[in-house]
Amino acid sequence: MYVHFPWCLSKCPYCDFASTTAKVVPEDRYTTALLRELAVRAEGLKAQPVDSIFFGGGTPSLWRPQLVGQVLEALASKLSLLPHAEVTLEANPGASDAGRFAAYRAAGVNRLSIGVQSFQPSTLKALGREHDGPLAVAAFEKARRAGFDNLSLDFIYGVHGQTAEQARLDATQAAALQPEHLSAYALTLEKEALAEEVPLARQLARGEVTLPPDEQVTGMQRAVEEVYAAAGLHRYEVSNYAKAGRHSRHNALYWTGGEYLALGVGATGRLGHRRYSNQRSAEKYLVEVEAQGVPTAQEEALDSPTLFRERLAMGLRLTNGIDLEALCRAYGEDFAPRRAQIELLTRHGLLRRDGARTQLTPAGFDVHSAVCARLM
Q: Angle 324-331/304-315 helices, nearest 10 degrees?
């Protein structure tokens, strides 16, 4: 399950998610609309077990904990939640959000993902973030005191003006907090990778900002991985690191081809061979749900070639890779020409084989999209 909360206190200049700002957030109206959408979308799904629920945004930690609890109760009544389902909520490090952590824990949230992005003042300023490093540390400590034993912290590297040493310092300070999970994403502003044009991308196009060169960004990633590994947080996906057994179960379902029901503004779900996306405008979403129950903006049927390409690309994001021959059989693709590509890419140090599984090397992760294109 993915549940989207679209409101933020301010819009970050690099963010292309379906999010918006508002002086007064219509929390009650939105919750009512979500529950109505759930009633429609959940029909016929009671038999399918739900292993993960993720409240994303936006800033879901602006949502009153009582309302988050109402959504969780409704999900439990309409769907078959597994007893130990992972229930994650994204949180802003702001002090007002951190004060709610105990209430979220009581409502049924058992994992927090805190959007730190950096501890460095200059990097936070470049990213348009309003918190500072000490506030982020305080939020983490409050989450621990609230009873959370499964915490993830998000970071961004490759930011304009950021040095390799600053990226390493962020990683060192993050690892010292001993979270169970860490995400480290390279800042991406290419138009083809964004759902919508963002202010920072426009500044880049006008030459007002300059991102670090690729080799420097790669060096930052290597430094981050080294620091995290020394702290027992091992890379299991392109941008994610975890202690043993603490990977993100929610994201793993996406990467391994699981089905996902999605609710809320801009949310995208996939059930069987059908994918749908909701309205990205909060007001349009509310009006359409209130009028007809379903706010679908786009829907597509997924054929076998499309599912094959997605499974290949997503599976190769994981360090344990994919069984490409089995994947070809499952989707009616010919493995023979891909065997030659695997051998070529292996000779060039971009792939390796572990039994039947094909895996990207560290160098291969740097050119993930290009490798996938060869194998598609």
A: 160
Give the separation between CA 37 and CA 271, rounded to whole angstroms: 15
pLDDT the model gives residue 205: 84
DSSP for residue 351:
E
Chain Cα centroid distance, residue 4: 12
Residue-level pLDDT at 364: 95
State which H helix or E strand residue 295 sits in: none
Task: Name 295's Cβ contacts closer than 8 Å, sequence gap at least 6.
Answer: 37, 265, 278, 279, 284, 285, 288, 289
Kindly tell me the burial class for residue 160, based on how many C-beta atoms sit within 10 Å of its own C-beta (0-12, 13-18, 19 or more). Answer: middle
Mean of all residue pLDDT scores within the chain: 93
Residue 33 CA from chain centroid, whole number? 24
Q: Which domains does the chain have, with CATH numbers?
A: 2-255 (3.20.20.70), 315-375 (no CATH)
pLDDT bracket for residue 322 (50, 70, 90): very high
Give per-residue pLDDT as tens, 263-306.
999 999 999 999 999 999 999 999 999 999 889 999 999 999 99
Helix and strand totals (H; E) in the chain: 16, 16
First-residue to last-residue Cα distance in the chain: 29
C-alpha distance from residue 170 to each of 53, 141, 215, 225 (Å): 29, 17, 19, 12
More confident: 209 or 141: 141
Alpha carbon distance 8, 88 (integer Å): 18
Q: For residue 59, give the DSSP letter.
A: -
